[in-house]
């Protein structure tokens, strides 16, 4: 009588699956409610983001206004402002990640588009929704506190005195690189597979990246790293200085996002090599 042979299960050397690249043009998206639901989620999330953060900035400036004989050490300080931005990103990415991916930032959307994570149609419409949400969020702040809004700069991003435009541009490029690189790393399917025993909530490192970048660059540019945030504040505040420096808050984040996408997808994940095959010859 033959002995039963125990069959060993086969294991793949690869314990994760990379999703296929998103088509460049996906017209079928326009026929799905999930697409429009995602646009609404991006709009509302960016609106809430600007509303809370701009209120925090204006509140801090009013609490430390030397003309009002206020306590110069009062208010939340730069640390509190950084927490407001990072904390809101953590909250909003957590709330919208399952609906729209939780971009809330045209630079993030652009980086993910270059990484073939979203289609061109979705990327463009996300950016439109984000910019409209930012405008509406700042509009709410101005509607509720018009005097404070105009007096304390409307939360608009401008290059600080003593810094040249090259320094401001570099700060935006590097700051956005940190953010978008964190987004790619936190949502990497390879990391999710290998670190499954240590559950890490993806919005947490993304929020912390925003927090850390704000600590470093608030004194330089007020920290943009989000073109919608800078654009929405400039539209509602509508002063010359905000518009003069506006290009920095678009060019810098888009360059930083492109570098982050290239670094993660091509260098770290070897996308080009995977597309061409492997260094090893197949038998």
TrEMBL record:
Keywords in UniProt for this one?
Membrane, Transmembrane, Transmembrane helix, Transport
What is the protein's major site of localization?
membrane
Looking up Gene3D superfamilies in the UniProt record yields:
Glycerol uptake facilitator protein
Q: Which residues form the signal peptide?
A: none
Q: Which residues cross the membrane?
A: 35-58, 78-100, 120-141, 200-220, 247-268
Q: Which family is this sequence assigned to? A: Belongs to the MIP/aquaporin (TC 1.A.8) family. PIP (TC 1.A.8.11) subfamily.
Q: Source taxonomy lineage?
A: Eukaryota, Viridiplantae, Streptophyta, Embryophyta, Tracheophyta
Q: Which InterPro entries match?
A: Aquaporin-like, Aquaporin_transptr, MIP, MIP_CS
User: Where located?
Assistant: Membrane
Q: Which NCBIfam families match?
A: MIP
Which domain of life, per UniProt?
Eukaryota
Q: What membrane topology does the annotation report for this chain?
A: Multi-pass membrane protein
CC annotations in GO: membrane
Q: What is this protein called?
A: Aquaporin PIP2-1-like
Q: Name one GO molecular function term.
A: channel activity
Query: Mind telling me which Pfam families this protein's record contains?
Result: MIP
């Amino acid at each position: 009588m033959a002995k039963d042979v125990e069959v060993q299960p086969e294991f793949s050397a690869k314990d994760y699956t990379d999703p296929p690249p998103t088509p460049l043009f996906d017209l079928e998206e326009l026929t799905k409610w999930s697409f429009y639901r995602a646009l609404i989620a991006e709009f509302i999330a960016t609106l809430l983001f600007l509303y809370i953060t701009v209120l925090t900035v204006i509140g801090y400036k009013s609490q430390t206004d030397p003309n009002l004989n206020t306590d110069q050490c009062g208010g939340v300080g730069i640390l509190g402002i950084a927490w407001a931005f990072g904390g809101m990103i953590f909250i909003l990415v957590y709330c919208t990640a399952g609906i729209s991916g939780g971009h809330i930032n045209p630079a993030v959307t652009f980086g993910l588009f270059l990484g073939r994570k979203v289609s061109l149609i979705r990327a463009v419409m996300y950016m439109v929704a984000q910019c409209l949400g930012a405008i509406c969020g700042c509009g709410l702040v101005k509607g509720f506190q018009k005097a404070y809004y105009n007096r304390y700069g409307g939360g608009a991003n401008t290059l600080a005195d003593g810094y040249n435009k090259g320094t401001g541009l570099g700060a935006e490029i590097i700051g956005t690189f940190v953010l978008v690189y964190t987004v790619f790393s936190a949502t990497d399917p390879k990391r999710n597979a290998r670190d499954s025993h240590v559950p890490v909530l993806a919005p947490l490192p993304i929020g912390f990246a925003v927090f850390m970048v704000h600590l470093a660059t608030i004194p330089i540019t007020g920290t943009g790293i989000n073109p919608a945030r800078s654009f929405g504040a400039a539209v509602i505040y509508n002063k010359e200085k905000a518009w003069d420096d506006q290009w920095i808050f678009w060019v810098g984040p888009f360059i930083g996002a492109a570098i982050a996408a290239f670094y993660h997808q091509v260098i770290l994940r070897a996308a080009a090599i995977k597309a061409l095959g492997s260094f090893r010859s197949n038998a």
